[in-house]
Specification:
10% strand, alpha/beta, globular, 47% helix, single chain, 14 helices
Amino acid sequence: MTFLLFINESAAPPNEDLVAWAETYGVKGDLRSRYTVFSMIMADTSLSRGALNGDDIEGSSLWEIALAELKTIKRRGFPQWESCFMNYRPASREMLWGEEEESLTALFEGKDMESFLNALVAYYRRRGFGYFAFYPFFRWERDRVFPIFHPDLVEMDTLLGYEDQKTQICRNTEAFLRGSHGNNVLLYGERGTGKSSTVKAVGTKYYREGLRLVELDRGDLTSLGALCRYLEGIGLHFIVCIDDLSFDDFETDYKSLKAVLEGSLTKQRDNVLIYATSNRRHLVKETWDERQGGEINARENADEKMSLSDRFGLSIAFLNPDQEEFLAMAADIARRRGLDIPWSELRRDALLWEKWQHGLSGRTAVQFVNEMECRLMVNEVK
């Protein structure tokens, strides 16, 4: 086992594990060199972390050690594997192993290990290491970050309407990725208007630029500080996503969020922002009974509860569409799915659907098109 890169160059994984790996990542070609490069990408080491943190690795002792180990790996060679692993053709459609990884592998298969190490460090800086290099979305559970292996990759151009809102959020995200502090964002408004989908679309759109989304459950807010400290050490840009955020008047967990957003002695991490969605503009429930006391106490109580939403630099409203916007959404979704539905029929059935179901919203439009698709499939079978 090597000291720095943590690659066991003298042994390959069991054949069944190697096949599972190749199918999971869609790897083709010579699996020997590709698995070795994969191991380097996955390694959480001083080299990978230093590259992400922007350290001056080139010419340092860290660089010299890494280069020496690469030369040792190349000199020792690989064990003899079955011929099918020399030109592997995966059945899987997964494309996690892409052009960047292929280019990196081509350099490793050459003789110039210094050029390869340059490319590896550049890869770390651009894509990260470990699962962060391959997956856009993660979850924080039990004080650990886990990749979401089958993420819901929403494309921004599939979200109809709310152009001003999307522009604001994208502008904030792009500034954040380019070195600005950016603003924490609260997306609030009616249910089903696309708040959560917009956050997913941001992750899909900017994944290649080094953005990763980490989902935090509402019940884990007390560990938000620990999550931010962990992400600070990784070096990529992260958005912590908190969906359907709101608090009843008796809850106090919101104070953990307040402290992270602004107010504790520790400043917010430069590579972490928080994007939260909520049906409420003011996140903490306030009742009329609370206003029946003296004027000073009532105002103090209101200020305490409103101060949480005030800590989000951007508060962006997602309101229900009007009838014509709703119909346009339904028609666009049907068109994208290739459904041949006459406009008069779509209009009539969509308006009936929203009256009997969940009102005017993007979610209702999707549910309506799902229903129409089911009807068409059943009719075709008959």
